[in-house]
Amino acid sequence: MLKLYNTLSRKIESFKPLHPPKVGFYSCGPTVYDFQHIGNYRTYVGNDLFQRVLSFNGFLVERVMNITDVGHLTSNADTGEDKLEKGAKREGKSVWEIAQFYTKDFFESLKQLNVLTPGVVCKATDHI
Q1: Spatial distance between the Cα atoms of 13 and 99, rounded to a whole number of angstroms
Q2: Which of 2, 38, 62, 96 is the right S-S partner for 15, CB 3.0 to 4.6 Å?
Q3: Are 28 and 65 in contact (CB under 8 A)?
């Protein structure tokens, strides 16, 4: 039986999915305006590890991750310049070219790190 630390209850508890043996798992993906750094990849390696632990324990994992390829501001206060526009200006390319280039680089890097690709990857521009 898989046990996890519940930060809400501050106790180690048995993992009980809502619809056993299926587990839905969402994780935030990158904002693709520049190369990712080691701190970014730490998150994806951790998510990969959690997915593998769930699978090893017999759960059927449906993992979803987004790609923010539009509209991410440089400030958390809903002000500032869009990070993709800033990257486009820096490199003399369109926002679309920036998003495509860094999305491709992101997935190539995940492959080099042996990180599993989520079953569902949603780009923001496909849903707005």
Answers
A1: 41
A2: 2
A3: yes
Looking up tokens 């209850």, which residue turns up? 9
Closest Cα to residue 54, out of 9, 30, 46? 46
Map out the domains of the chain with their CATH numbers: 21-126 (3.40.50.620)
What whole-number distance in Å separates Cα of residue 107 and Cα of residue 35? Answer: 11
Q: How far is CA 126 from CA 105, 111, 115, in A?
A: 19, 23, 24
d(CA 84, CA 95): 6
Q: Residue 90, CB half-sphere, CA atoms under 13 Å: how many?
A: 10
pLDDT tens for 83-127 read: 889 899 999 999 999 999 999 999 999 999 999 999 999 999 998
